[in-house]
Amino acid sequence: MDNFFISTAISYTNGPPHIGHAYEVIAADVIARFKRLEGKNVFFLTGTDEHGLKVQQKAIKLEISPQELADQMSGNFIEMGRALHCSNDDFIRTSEERHKKAVREIWLKMKNNGDIYLDDYSGWYSLIDEAFYNEDELIKDDKGKFLSPNNTPVEWVEEQSYFFRLSSYQEKLLSLYENNFIQPKSKMNEIKNFVEGGLRDISISRKGLDWGIRVPEDDDHSVYVWVDALTNYISALKWPEKSDLFDNFWPGDLHLIGKDIVRFHTVFWPAFLLSAGLELPKQVFSHGFILNKGEKMSKSLGNIEDPMSLAKTFGVDQLRYFLMRETPFGNDGNYSDELLINRVNADLSNDLGNLSQRCLTMVKKNCDQSIPQKNKLNNVDQELLNLVDRKKANIIKLMSSYQISSYISEVFELVSDTNKYFSDQKPWDLKTSDPARMNTVLWISCEMLRRIGILLQPVIPIGSSKLLDFLNIDSDKRLINFLSDDYVLESGKPIKDPEIIFPKIDLIK
């Protein structure tokens, strides 16, 4: 089978999960699940970034050790993934020994290549971003105080540091950007312009930081958090050991990340890998933020949404569906309870849920609770069935380019077309006037539900599984290649008792 590696950014452990974390891991899960439906051998990685000054300071404030804080927060992120039915194959923690070993090894490889040297550093540093900035990158607030490009506070830092010769990789990086390495295109242009402006060597260690991985052969320094964090993508594959996991899945197919950390993944990370003599990942995709009624979520504004609470209130599938459907992937999106309720009620409860309930209830009552007999098909029947074949290539192409919202939209056009067919054909009238025709209409509707159920598995795994279970579809026949006319419903096969899959959600006043 073809192998496919997908990763999220690893989440920082100075605070609990919020809806932005959920958005990224759900999106990665949708892609991973779809690739499995295509028959690929998938390795889906997520995890937590546990070192650094922010974690150390938060732990001191809470009067616990940094390791205790990391353990607590990492547990929260693991619980979130499970609660949201995410199918990751591994969860990497940067405090694990397997990871520390890989960080020390990549450091030594870069050093042995002549790309690491000791010098004095002076410049602007953002603790929140864990990033160093040149003064020409900074902005000023209304009081004339410098801020980072992300509007975070910066401080002037002067200390001895190890540096990485990033400046020597400018041309190689620019060559890399010609090969569709960064998506969406707007981010590729942004990074390309940054690199074309000239690269300077970067500080890659911090002196006197207790909570971090010590620099090999120099215990006074800890490895800069971004060298540490980025290495997770290969440490989880058991590098630097001789490993089938690394051989099969590296170079990775997709790093899925937020738009605020694109530079680290598309400038620093490939340069580190080139220096260490390792292959580069194939693509980095940058998604937008989830805003709360148009505002960026922050603790100070008190508008952070807890994804596990939302999943309990509205349902796991409902939250997954809304986050993936509402916004074109790559753009910023908006969250509010009202938006979620309206979208879920319209699409899942009314369109898909009602179609399933009406169709399968009729089958139960009028067809001996078995798949109806398919009789002669007319042009309308054949046209509806052919829609899936006509759309299939485009649907697969949309997901292959990670246009998740557009993929869902295409599938729900099939739901809408099937609803129209069901209403137009009026099988309830055919029950008395033409029972054979009623059977055919119900068979066509069931067959469309089967195909729709297969396509929606990556997005709403619980509801689509229930739908396919109602139709008694074997678990090994729920892959993309079973969408064709060669694998249609078998008349006479019993179905299970249908239930309401997506109850309507009452508006919250």
Q: Features of this protein?
A:
509 residues; alpha/beta; Isoleucyl-tRNA Synthetase, Domain 1; 7-stranded parallel beta sheet; 4-stranded antiparallel beta sheet; 18 helices; 19 strands
Verbal overview:
The model has no long low-confidence stretch (mean pLDDT 94). The two termini are 51 Å apart. It is built from 18 helices and 19 strands. The protein is elongated and about 90 Å long. Helix 11 (307-314) packs across helix 12 (316-325), helix 13 packs across helix 15 (404-425) and helix 16 packs antiparallel against helix 17. The strands form five sheets. Strands 1, 2, 3, 4, 10, 15 and 16 form a seven-stranded parallel sheet that branches. The protein has helices spanning 19-37, 53-62, 66-83, 97-112, 170-176, 185-196, 225-230, 232-235, 244-249, 262-276, 307-314, 316-325, 337-366, 379-400, 404-425, 427-433, 435-456, 461-470; strands spanning 3-8, 11-12, 41-49, 90-93, 116-126, 131-133, 139-140, 146-147, 155-164, 182-183, 202-203, 205-207, 214-215, 218-223, 254-258, 284-287, 290-292, 295-296, 333-335. The chain has a domain at 336-483: Isoleucyl-tRNA Synthetase, Domain 1. Strand 13 (214-215) and strand 14 (218-223) form a beta hairpin. With 509 residues, the chain is of the alpha/beta class. The longest helix is centred in the last third of the chain and has 30 residues, at 337-366.
